[in-house]
Write a structure and sequence with these properties.
The chain has 196 residues and is mainly alpha-helical. A two-stranded antiparallel sheet has the order 1-2. Strands 3-4 form a two-stranded antiparallel sheet. The chain is flat and about 55 Å long. The two termini are 38 Å apart.
């Protein structure tokens, strides 16, 4: 870290099935942190979070699994059950709203009636950091190109804390690579085919 001029950041302890922040809930971070190599004391490979952020994960402290007394975890269990019930209710609501939107109702008016907000982001790039949740971006890039003047919709889970309806209203084609980049890509494909 000193050589690269970056700081070492230490999140609080977290479990494999539940992170304590958006960073520790990130699936790539979870996979790296609980890999055999990292748990064995090694650094992870470089983990690409987006176009501008990468991390290397190292375990500072591993706390062995233990069974706690029911009285010590009762409130946590109740909270977890409540969160699961709320998440299930949110999924049902999102699916219902999606069905109404697909029948022609306005997402904006449905959201307003439900006390929710519609957030808009334009010109999102697949791997760029835009402030929009990565699960929403990932879902948007799985949707097919909508017809002109229409939108394609889907429901996606957002960081295991809720659901979002993703509306794709258009697709902008990326810039074609210059000839040098195109030649390098072509060469890479040909090289990989020779390896098969």
């Amino acid at each position: 870290a000193k050589t690269l001029g970056v700081s070492v950041q230490e999140p609080p302890l977290f479990s494999q099935d539940k992170g304590v922040s958006s960073f520790t809930r990130n699936q790539k971070v979870q996979t790296a942190a609980f890999s055999t190599d990292v748990l064995g004391g090694n650094n992870s490979d470089v983990v690409q979070l987006n176009d501008t952020e990468v991390v290397v994960v190292r375990v500072k402290q591993k706390v062995p699994e233990t069974i706690k007394a029911f009285s010590a975890v009762k409130l946590q269990i109740l909270k977890t059950l409540q969160e699961k019930a709320e998440l299930s209710k949110a999924k049902t609501q999102a699916d219902h709203m999606l069905a109404l939107v697909n029948q022609g109702q306005s997402l904006q008016s449905l959201a307003k009636k439900a006390g929710l907000h519609v957030l808009t982001d334009t010109n999102i790039k697949r791997n760029a950091s835009s402030g929009t949740n990565s699960a929403v971006i990932e879902q948007a890039f799985t949707l097919s190109r909508p017809e002109k003047g229409k939108a394609n919709y889907a429901v996606t889970s957002v960081d295991h804390i809720g659901y979002a309806i993703v509306a794709l209203t258009g697709v902008n084609l990326g810039d074609a690579p210059d000839s040098k980049t195109q030649n390098a890509l072509t060469q890479g494909v040909q090289d990989s085919q020779r390896m098969l």
